[in-house]
Amino acid sequence: MIINKNISVIYLTLFTCLNLSFANCDAPENWQMGFQDPATPIMEGVINLHHDLMFFIVLVSIFVTWMLVRTLWYFEQTQNIIPSTLTHGTFIEIIWTVTPAFILLIIAIPSFSLLYAMDEIISPAITIKILGHQWYWSYEYSDYINDKDDIVTFDSYMVPEEDLETGQLRLLEVDNRVVVPIKTHVRVIVSAADVLHSWAVPSLGIKCDAIPGRLNQTSIFIKREGLYYGQCSEICGINHGFMPIVVEAVSLPNYVAWIYNKLST
Ligand code: CUA
């Protein structure tokens, strides 16, 4: 047992030193290069499509660079004193027209399937209405009603820097989080009260424009519990950078308890 304990201590030290962790990345980190970890099938799809496209990008870049270098090398004036008189090449023209078209065709298949998957609203169990304001978000759970005919509705403001507690994220923490159950199809309806905003949470693969006088809808299906951070993603005025989003994904019983609490207060 002591050996085991020592090994785990070594691992912990190693992970801390290398700045590695087992925790999922659901908020931006310093010098982050890649995506945040996915929490929905849609975000998994986005990341996979990115990887698929990366394959073609690398292939095409290497080929084009190789062609360019070869051309510059072999057709340089001192190396190639008598220029070629060739002006046409039907065969090569067919090749360099058909090949890119074929690559685009291959890319289109996963791209379209993802696009339609994002558009699909699968019989939602919960509907949440999200309104963008200058400069905060307000949330409305209209599925539930109490004896006083009240629905669950609240505003969500950023926690200012001077009020942050240890461990809280600067410019990302809010006073009231959106609580959502995991493994449930949730429909979100997004709109704005004043100007354009955009409700965006990277880990959920959502970026939905909030447009005054118009309802946009998407769906969320969160696979694991956690805190997902996002920000307004449409320039909406002076405090655009100060209206973050925090989605708290909890188990269904905890969600029911939360709703019950909200309705009875
Ligand atoms: Cu709201 Cu930018």
Automatic annotation (TrEMBL):
Component of the cytochrome c oxidase, the last enzyme in the mitochondrial electron transport chain which drives oxidative phosphorylation. The respiratory chain contains 3 multisubunit complexes succinate dehydrogenase (complex II, CII), ubiquinol-cytochrome c oxidoreductase (cytochrome b-c1 complex, complex III, CIII) and cytochrome c oxidase (complex IV, CIV), that cooperate to transfer electrons derived from NADH and succinate to molecular oxygen, creating an electrochemical gradient over the inner membrane that drives transmembrane transport and the ATP synthase. Residues 123-261 form the Cytochrome oxidase subunit II copper A binding domain. Residues 1-23 form the signal peptide. GO terms for biological process: ATP synthesis coupled electron transport. It catalyses: 4 Fe(II)-[cytochrome c] + O2 + 8 H(+)(in) = 4 Fe(III)-[cytochrome c] + 2 H2O + 4 H(+)(out). The keyword Transmembrane helix applies. Its cofactor is Cu cation. Binds a copper A center. InterPro entries: CcO_II, CcO_II-like_C, CcO_II_C, Copper_CuA, Cupredoxin, Cyt_c_oxidase_su2, Cyt_c_oxidase_su2_TM_dom, Cyt_c_oxidase_su2_TM_sf. This is Cytochrome c oxidase subunit 2. It is found in: Mitochondrion inner membrane; Mitochondrion membrane. GO terms for cellular component: catalytic complex; mitochondrial inner membrane; transmembrane transporter complex. Pfam families: COX2, COX2_TM. One of its GO terms (molecular function) is oxidoreductase activity. It is a multi-pass membrane protein. Residues 27-122 form the Cytochrome oxidase subunit II transmembrane region profile domain. The keyword Cytoplasm does not apply. Keywords: Copper, Electron transport, Membrane, Metal-binding, Mitochondrion, Mitochondrion inner membrane, Respiratory chain, Signal, Translocase, Transmembrane, Transmembrane helix, Transport. Belongs to the cytochrome c oxidase subunit 2 family. The chain crosses the membrane at residues 53-73, 94-118. It comes from Balbiania investiens.
